[in-house]
Task: structure prediction
Amino acid sequence: MSSLQIGAESKPRFEFRSFGQQFDAAHQRMARLSVPVPEAVWERHSDEVYILSRTNDVNNTKIRNGKMDIKTYIQSVDGLEQWNPLMKGEFPMAREMLVDEVVPAFQVDLRLPQQDAFTLDEFLDLVRAHPELQSVRVHKQRFGYMVNDTLCEYGLVLINGARVATINSESTEIEAIKKTIADVGLEGVENINYLQAIKRVIGMIDRPLAN
Result:
């Protein structure tokens, strides 16, 4: 039995992830090398909204099914990134929570109207009106695997309709991720997280993806 369970809460994991036009060869090897995984993660679809800030590259803010999830960057070790949950919240959301926990993550001056709570649409209207913020619609089609006891996935992602591919390996064990990267043929490929990838696709950062 694997010590790292898909979907389970654990100590903060390290992650390698990249984005590009295709990772077909690496995906094929990942699928071949994977041990059997639960049917629930064979293929998953989700629609999410990411909130991007020109002044923030350390807090990853996304909304899925009316719930906000913010993760914050902790450190990089051997080119692998470690992220920690910062907050989780649900809409409608109290003004106090937005002021104390959400807005500071964007690292911009965002003034909220005087009302007790905000629906998701009300909050997104404020985001869209701010010159340093941008909401981005992201559809994910993800295929889950497990290689070398690391959680892996290959995904097809629509970022405001632009289609890109992503591939990743994550674990609490750095050496296991490095072995997986080598085994599936991803050595030398740039580690690009969701925050960076979306910014590159929408032109907020002037850099290409991995391929």
Observations:
- Residues 47 and 139 are 5 Å apart (CA to CA).
- The longest strand covers residues 133-147.
- The chain is about 25% helix and 40% strand.
- Helices lie at 24-33, 95-106, 120-129, 174-184, 194-202.
